[in-house]
Design brief:
It contains eleven helices and no strands. The chain has a single domain (about 5-20, about 50-260), classed as MetI-like (MetI-like fold, Orthogonal Bundle), CATH 1.10.3720. It has helices at about 5-25, 55-95, 95-110, 115-125, 130-155, 160-165, 170-180, 185-205, 215-225, 235-260, 260-270. It is mainly alpha-helical. Helix 2 (about 55-95) packs antiparallel against helix 3 and helix 10 (about 235-260) crosses helix 11 (about 260-270). The protein is elongated, with a radius of gyration of 22 Å.
Length: about 270
């Protein structure tokens, strides 16, 4: 693994640990207000300062990581499950199944992703569950296309023909012979998918369609816009947390791609 990929892995691992341990490591309750101390700059008591209602920004950033991790990984888990299932069926059986899946994908891709997520969240209501559902509606498409392409290639290979000749059924061939060979690109895509889901959640929260009663980096950025001149720390620290998280996931995704893609390894082999 390259040094950049190790940095990405360290960032992602730190994010997960921080999200899990936020209730134990946060110095204060993220929703406790101290109106007399609003917009205070970073100090020994409040390391990242306080927001417009005097809430501790460090505590809110730590709890905001929980929202990002939950949305990112839950969205990708649902998207991978749906995408792998539909992509496998479309690529293996072809014809009517393939046409049905691909036409559904064509229809869904006609909608801009973030606009559809905004519309669905506005209709369903701002909550963690609804954000995950809204982002998953289009999130599965990329995985389905990847898996379908791999199945179209692998189903014609000799090891599949041998398994079929030995009496293996379609389900066994899909699960035990073809699917294990398509996980590498899916894992790489999932890494970038987590980053995209976290960024989309921050965008929804920035627009006021995020979780209610829970700190979110996007919501914190929205609150800090009005105070960029007098208290820039209100927006800077959640923005930095979001930027470092996305950067770490992209670093990790690039490293996994280089590691799992044989073509990339071939370029790295000394001549």
């Amino acid at each position: 693994m390259t040094p950049v990929a190790r940095i990405g892995l360290a960032i992602v691992a730190t994010l997960v640990v921080v999200a899990a341990a936020a209730p134990h490591i946060a110095p204060q309750d993220p929703n406790t207000q101290h109106l007399a101390e609003h917009l205070r700059s970073p100090s020994s008591t409040h390391l990242l300062g306080q927001d417009r209602t005097g809430r501790d920004i460090l505590s809110r950033v730590l709890f905001g990581a929980r929202v990002s991790v939950l949305v990112g990984f839950a969205t990708v888990a649902i998207s991978v499950f749906v995408g792998v299932c539909l992509g496998s069926l479309a690529g293996y059986f072809g014809r009517l199944v393939d046409d049905a899946v691909m036409r559904t994908i064509d229809v869904l891709q006609a909608f801009p992703g973030i606009l559809l997520a905004i519309a669905l969240t506005a209709v369903l209501g701002p909550s963690l569950r609804n954000i995950v559902l809204a982002l998953s509606v289009l999130g599965w498409i990329g995985y389905a296309r990847i898996v379908r392409g791999q199945f179209l290639r692998l189903r014609e290979m000799e090891f599949v023909s041998a398994a079929r000749a030995l009496g293996a059924g379609d389900l066994r061939i899909i699960l035990h012979h073809i699917l294990p060979n398509v996980w590498a690109p899916v894992i790489v895509q999932a890494t970038f998918g987590v980053a995209a889901a976290i960024l989309a959640e921050a965008s929804l929260s920035f627009l006021g369609l995020g979780t209610q009663g829970m700190p979110s980096w996007g919501g914190m950025l929205n609150e800090g816009i009005d105070f960029l001149a007098e208290a820039p720390h209100v927006a800077i620290f959640p923005g930095l947390a979001l930027m470092i998280t996305i950067l770490g996931l992209n670093f990790l995704g690039d490293g996994l791609r280089d590691r799992l893609d044989p073509r990339m390894r071939a370029f790295d082999t000394p001549g």
